[in-house]
Write a structure and sequence with these properties.
single chain; 211 residues; alpha/beta; Dna Topoisomerase Vi A Subunit, Chain: A, domain 2; 2 domains; 4-stranded antiparallel sheet
Amino acid sequence: MRYLEERGVRDATLLADLGIGYAPGGNLRAHLTALGYSFDLLLQLGLINSQGRDAFSRRVIFPCRQHGHIVNLYGRSIGAAFPHRLLPRSKGDLFAWDSVRCYSTVILVEGLFDLAVLWQAGFRHTTCAIGTHLTPAQLAQLCDSPHRSVYIVFDQDENHAGQQASRPLAQRLQSAGIKAHMVQLPPGHDPNSYFVAGGTAADFAAYLHQA
């Protein structure tokens, strides 16, 4: 909870809506083995590693749902381990697409903490591809309504990776008949860090208007 507070995620209702949890590590294998699941199956699913240790250890967990079913798990390390982890399979649909697809205007962000702070600020029409690379299925989802506008709010990295990824994506969307807007936050910021630094919903809405 202290880590979530540091990342600006404070709303208990939001935690429930997104299904955010925590994997302490060290207990999942024993629990699932007691339920009859084999070591080989848990290894194949990516829930444990070859040494039998929990793959998700000391990680905040976001379940990635598709039509009501969990198709993957995203784990964000709160320790020294590599920050990002997904199960070894497709990351599935755009995050929370079942609830976002009804909007004519959609905000697309890179990370799930970006999405969390924007939902918390009232921008519930925000979705996430978990990274800057959209799968063909995710791109098709953005293009499934001819009257949709998409605001791309990728990280304003020092190496310009977010900016470089947003331009060809905007072009692909526009080629498909979708209105695409590239939103530029202050240098070095993503939506998460922007709100943690004191940005407000009104400030963010102004950046959308300027895009």
